[in-house]
Design a protein that fits this description.
This protein has about 250 residues and is an alpha/beta fold. About 40% of the residues lie in helices and about 15% in strands.
Length: about 250
């Protein structure tokens, strides 16, 4: 049975824990799955003010370099920026596919803060703010459920929210550098969330179109299908694995 090594990269405010259900399914299907905490998230206690986009990229590059073969990088939401930068550095010899899950698929010079500027119909963007010292980013607590996971029962969301962390602000402001050839030749896929109230579906589709993705998959979910439809999300990842590893 062929298998892939999936590196699942979590979204802003979350941690490796957010991929638990999807990772378990992929492992049961025979794949190798790596789910790191980005700096300042989950079990990593790096101070938010010390963190930059490069630190996120370095963390994922560490796992890419540890792998015995080329990996599939899966980025949720903001992590789309991270996996794009990793692919630019690592190239197709180490990264055989990129999967963007309701994620920021941006061009050279793009940044999170520029991408959300002027976005309408986003509960998350409407209620986004920086801390007084501008080291962390937040969405108003009373709007988090509606913004990110309105299709997840409130009780389950409340239980998960104890693991949320303030998001380091600097990486959200920093720009992608995709000037080389590596990123452009790695196959890209997009998994859209049609009921997303954080990254509106119009924005997702515009990014997927401009990003020249090989194929788009669709989930009728809010911003976090890894919570609300992990089985279907894992099914799509398995399908992408099949496309990247055709039977001989």
């Amino acid at each position: 049975m062929s298998q892939s090594t999936f590196i699942l990269v979590h979204a802003a405010w979350l941690g490796a824990w957010a991929w638990h259900d999807v990772a378990q399914i992929l492992v049961e299907q025979g794949h190798s799955v790596v789910v790191p905490d980005l700096p300042g998230h989950g079990g990593d206690n790096t101070p938010a003010g010390d963190i930059h986009l490069k630190d996120y990229v370095d963390r994922i590059m560490l796992e890419v370099d540890r792998s015995d073969g080329p990996v599939v990088l899966v980025g949720h939401s903001f992590a789309g920026i991270v996996i794009s930068q990793v692919a630019e550095i690592a190239g197709p010899e180490k990264v055989k596919g990129l999967v963007y899950v309701a994620a920021f698929l941006l061009p050279d010079g793009g940044s999170f803060i520029d991408a959300v500027s002027g976005v309408t119909d986003s509960v998350a963007v409407e209620h986004f703010y920086l801390s007084g010292d501008e080291t962390t980013a937040h969405v108003a607590e009373e709007k988090m459920h509606e913004a990110f996971a309105q299709d997840v029962p409130q009780e389950a969301f409340i239980a998960a929210s104890q693991f949320f962390v303030p998001e380091p602000a600097a990486p959200l402001m920093e720009k992608l550098s995709l000037t080389g050839e590596n990123y452009r030749v790695v196959p890209r896929y997009y998994i859209e969330a049609t009921e997303d109230k954080a990254v509106p579906i119009t924005a997702q589709r515009a990014m997927a179109s401009a990003g020249n993705v090989r194929r788009t998959f669709s989930l009728n979910t809010g911003h976090c299908p890894n919570f609300s439809q992990p089985g279907k999300l894992a099914e799509y990842l398995q399908e992408i694995h099949g496309e990247l590893n055709p039977a001989r």
